[in-house]
Amino acid sequence: LYSAVDPDISVAPREGTTFAVGDVDAEALRAVEGVEALSFVLEQGAMAEAGGRRTIARVKGVDESYAYAVPVADRVVAGSFAVASEDADCMVAGQGVARDLQLSRLSTGETVRLYALNRARMSSLRPTGGYKRREMPLAGIYSVDEETGDRIFVSLGVAQSLFNYPDRASVKLSGKASHLYLVMAGSTNHMQSGIENGKIRIRYKDGSESVTPLVNPHNWAPIEQDFYNDNHAFALAPGTKPLYRMHLQTGHVARDLAREVGKRQELESTGADGDIVGTIPGGAAVVLDIPADPKRKLESLEIETLSGDVVIGLMGITLQRP
């Protein structure tokens, strides 16, 4: 029975809950003997609502290959297994979800709303702002058993948006450049210190690419403050200078922006050295100089986040032509 909604083999990341689609060699997996179909999915919990009734469900985002990899369409008892139509997204609900929401086999086309925690905005001070909502019509209902009837199938794009796992963003480029100057802003925290928070990829027309990791605190910083830097556990790499930051209120650029425009809190404990936190009123962006190959034609710039705690935003690009 489980084969109707579950694959024969699942591949999951060794650490964390998700991995970037671009990091998976899909063609190599498809070439493995015995593999007939391959599909990417994203599944998390959410609340579903229809007609004033609510229930908790497992929302599973699937790509266009899912129906070939898993024969769940054979278990549809109303409507069809369709997570997208020509003009709109839609969903397919399990019999358990349909029962809790009092949706019958005649309910296809009715609107169902999904609510999920917004990991980028969750705050105890503004709990109502900590949720993301999507609503779409019900395309079908499937029936397997009680254990698997609590799922709702949506498109992979809908799930990525709902759960704040957007696909990596890219910007088309043209011509050649020796340097790309980026103005960026986003979030990070001390638990992400010393590890890759994200990646910047410069793709070229010939298929090659160059990758610059974003590592807190060496070349990535939170929008609202400067770093905790005690020159011990939390410290810049030897020989590394502080980041250039641009004050978003005034446009002022400096390597120690918090000291110039913000308010510092000094560490009073014995044995510690330097400042703890540099709050920057109005926030600050990061200004990065990314070298490029001036002999190759540019294709695109791609930004990728590697942690659910990190948000990366690209505000502007300046290309230095060779």
Provide a short characterization of the protein structure.
This protein is mainly beta. The protein has helices at residues 26-30, 66-69, 95-100, 156-162, 257-261, and strands at 41-50, 53-62, 76-79, 91-94, 111-117, 131-142, 151-155, 169-172, 179-187, 196-204, 209-215, 244-247, 253-254, 263-266, 275-279, 284-291, 298-305, 311-320.
Describe this protein's structure.
It is a single chain. With 322 residues, the chain is mainly β. It contains 5 helices and 18 strands. Strands 1-2-7-4-6-5 form a 6-stranded mixed beta barrel. The longest helix is centred in the middle third of the chain and has 7 residues. It is elongated and about 65 Å long. It starts with 25 loop residues before the first helix and ends with a strand.
Report the major sheet. 6 strands, mixed, barrel
Q: Could you give the distance between the termini?
A: 62 Å
**Biggest β-sheet: strands ordered side by side in the sheet:** 1-2-7-4-6-5
How large is the radius of gyration?
Answer: 24 Å
Number of strands: 18
Can you tell me the overall shape? elongated
Overall pLDDT level:
83
- Considering DSSP H and I runs of 4 or more, what fraction of the residues is helical? under 10%
SSE order: HEEHEEHEEEHEEEEEEHEEEEE
Parts with pLDDT < 50 across at least 5 consecutive residues: 122-128, 263-276
